[in-house]
């Protein structure tokens, strides 16, 4: 059932800041707002970043991450949480502890490891911590193909058959569901994602949009799904709605002219989309 309350559902994003505005906290807030929810945020790291890449990462002190989490959870009625860039093991542990403490209704984890530009955003020794502490708490984990390979210890898939071969390994991560994103299969005419639940798997299909302006796609999709969950949609519908929103945001990306590298998607391609 869709969200039935008169109040706008609140979605929290826990992620890093992108000074260029195309990914991270900035993309999350745009996507959550565009899909009809109220966005609040906890910043885990400050990146010096633009459409050309990431030049510096400064993790926020743990005590301040903790105090941000306490501030929003003790005052705001947070329905869904999206987690993005966490940078290191200590930050992952703090976030996981607070998720266990406050127990939001929905948790979507985008296991951000590498930026669109190829820059490493998660220290390699933190992957085990992520798998142990946070992923088992998640309603949905949204890895791209390199992230899926890093989480399972396998090879990066090069076609949809190889994506399917990862299903059991991804289920073993312990999340309620996994959305393995196929955007990296650039030779395909489609950009299909594989939704994996304990009892089934299904391709969520979309035609590939030919554009270089894809900065922040992972942040945007996971935030949109969290927003649609906050409105009361079941997981499958929230994923499908998020995928539709993402496809439109990419389709309209070339209407923007932002930076000299991988530009952002167009979050507000048709104004504010009220899903209620």
Automatic annotation (TrEMBL):
<protein>
    <recommendedName>
        <fullName>hydroxymethylpyrimidine kinase</fullName>
        <ecNumber>2.7.1.49</ecNumber>
    </recommendedName>
</protein>
<dbReference type="GO" id="GO:0008972">
    <property type="term" value="F:phosphomethylpyrimidine kinase activity"/>
</dbReference>
<dbReference type="GO" id="GO:0005829">
    <property type="term" value="C:cytosol"/>
</dbReference>
<feature type="domain" description="Pyridoxamine kinase/Phosphomethylpyrimidine kinase">
    <location>
        <begin position="18"/>
        <end position="266"/>
    </location>
</feature>
<dbReference type="GO" id="GO:0008902">
    <property type="term" value="F:hydroxymethylpyrimidine kinase activity"/>
</dbReference>
<dbReference type="GO" id="GO:0005524">
    <property type="term" value="F:ATP binding"/>
</dbReference>
<keyword id="KW-0547">Nucleotide-binding</keyword>
<dbReference type="GO" id="GO:0009228">
    <property type="term" value="P:thiamine biosynthetic process"/>
</dbReference>
<dbReference type="InterPro" id="IPR029056">
    <property type="entry name" value="Ribokinase-like"/>
</dbReference>
<dbReference type="GO" id="GO:0009229">
    <property type="term" value="P:thiamine diphosphate biosynthetic process"/>
</dbReference>
<dbReference type="InterPro" id="IPR004399">
    <property type="entry name" value="HMP/HMP-P_kinase_dom"/>
</dbReference>
<comment type="pathway">
    <text>Cofactor biosynthesis; thiamine diphosphate biosynthesis.</text>
</comment>
<keyword id="KW-0418">Kinase</keyword>
<keyword id="KW-0067">ATP-binding</keyword>
<dbReference type="InterPro" id="IPR013749">
    <property type="entry name" value="PM/HMP-P_kinase-1"/>
</dbReference>
<dbReference type="Pfam" id="PF08543">
    <property type="entry name" value="Phos_pyr_kin"/>
</dbReference>
<keyword id="KW-0808">Transferase</keyword>
């Amino acid at each position: 059932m869709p969200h039935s309350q008169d109040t706008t559902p609140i979605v929290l994003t826990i992620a890093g800041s992108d000074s260029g505005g195309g990914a991270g906290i900035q993309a999350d807030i745009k996507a959550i707002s565009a899909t009809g929810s109220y966005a609040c945020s906890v910043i885990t790291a400050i990146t010096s970043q633009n459409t050309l890449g990431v030049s510096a990462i400064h993790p926020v002190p743990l005590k301040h991450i903790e105090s941000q989490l306490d501030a929003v959870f003790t005052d705001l009625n947070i329905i869904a949480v999206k987690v993005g860039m966490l940078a290191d093991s200590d930050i992952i542990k703090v976030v996981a502890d607070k998720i266990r403490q406050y127990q939001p209704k929905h948790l979507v984890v985008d296991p951000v490891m590498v930026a669109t530009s190829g820059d490493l955003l998660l220290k390699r020794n933190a992957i085990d911590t992520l798998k142990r502490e946070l992923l088992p708490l998640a309603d949905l984990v949204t890895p791209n193909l390199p992230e899926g390979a890093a989480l399972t210890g396998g090879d990066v898939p090069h076609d949809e058959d190889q994506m399917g071969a990862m299903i059991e390994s991804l289920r073993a991560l312990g999340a309620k569901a996994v959305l393995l994103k196929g955007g990296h299969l650039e030779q395909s005419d489609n950009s299909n994602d594989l939704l994996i639940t304990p009892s089934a798997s299904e391709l969520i299909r979309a035609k590939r949009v030919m554009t270089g302006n894809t900065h922040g796609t992972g942040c945007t999709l996971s935030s949109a799904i969290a927003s649609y969950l906050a409105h009361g949609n079941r997981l499958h519908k929230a994923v499908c709605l998020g995928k539709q929103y993402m496809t439109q945001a990419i389709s309209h990306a070339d209407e923007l002219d932002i930076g000299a590298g991988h530009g952002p998607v167009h979050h507000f391609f048709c104004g504010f989309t009220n899903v209620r």
